[in-house]
């Protein structure tokens, strides 16, 4: 690609107005910027401005933008065959499944391929009901599991839930990291306990080993399944392939999306023999799930994570980024705490985070995310370079007054 960013300049400035008029508007927009391209860790707007994307487009573009192998795999598949129903075997789906199960610990050996995170969570609810013959779900306060009626029933934030009640019956929420409360909530009606090992959207809240391992023990004792939502923490985000591996957990089902297709929309659930044995033909399905384009993207993503050692890189880059933030923000009165594993970092502020996101984007051309109301969240691509870490840290320190 030519390095003159202005090649992307687009004369038509009407896009923002069209979207404002025609799109639902349920997602709050960041001003009138129109993003038109990406290169590596950078997004490029219609005026040719370049932004360092420390969000990977909401945690999905783990390989950044325009990754050669990912782009080539999608292009090759698009030209050869872009659709194929689930009732035919397909070469790309088979190769993707083999690669996916290949990076799982031993007990997770079956998969259902869906199209998004929320859809994967809905699949977990259905499969857990089948495997246990029970309907109750225990989730955590502060959780985020998605927006479909099933997934939003497990999501904690009342703003997302309340307008849509009545939701799924039999769902309860316990305080995150409170094992005693969890102990009280798991009954012989509980099909599954559904947890994130780091609550992303909820504030980059770190799960504690005692709580997560205790949850697994209680599930085993009472015949409930342990479902881990790895949608945000999966595929190297936390410095290991999956977040549950930091705690030696053996979940019955994990939900995947985000990094699964490195930005190509796809989701999946991966689960044990016990769950597989409960399934029957027709129990679940998806018209688009396992689409060859998605599978080609997912296969290229997993190969890139492996061949470019990106899981290790995420751990190293995450340590460096956190250490540099600690240094640069040491005397910054607005910062309460910096936390998070790998390249999933939360900077907890003593004040609302919103204005800082705006300053970082408009004055420093650095993209960041909120988590909860006070946390500045960083979910950069795993390919983030040391030089880009410095650019990000300098901008964040300037914006937060470090
Ligand atoms: C993003 C996310 C979801 C929802 O995924 P969608 O693809 O937006 O439906 C669910 N759980 C977690 C932990 C997430 O980060």
Question: Measured on Cα atoms, how large is the radius of gyration?
Answer: 21 Å
Total tally of structural domains: 2
> CATH fold name of the largest domain, please?
Aspartate Aminotransferase, domain 2
Residues in helices, as a percent range: 25-40%
SS elements, strand count: 17
Bound ligand species: pyridoxal-5'-phosphate
Distance between the termini: 36 Å
CATH C-level of the largest domain? Alpha Beta
User: What is the CATH superfamily classification of the largest domain?
Assistant: Type I PLP-dependent aspartate aminotransferase-like (Major domain)
Whole-number average pLDDT? 96
CATH architecture annotation of the largest domain: 3-Layer(aba) Sandwich
Largest sheet: 7 strands, mixed
Sheet with most strands: strand arrangement: 4-12-11-10-7-5-6
How many individual helices?
Answer: 14
The assigned structural class equals alpha/beta
User: What percentage of the residues does DSSP assign to strands (E)?
Assistant: 15-25%
Tertiary shape: globular
The stretches of 5 or more residues where confidence is low (pLDDT under 50) are: 1-5
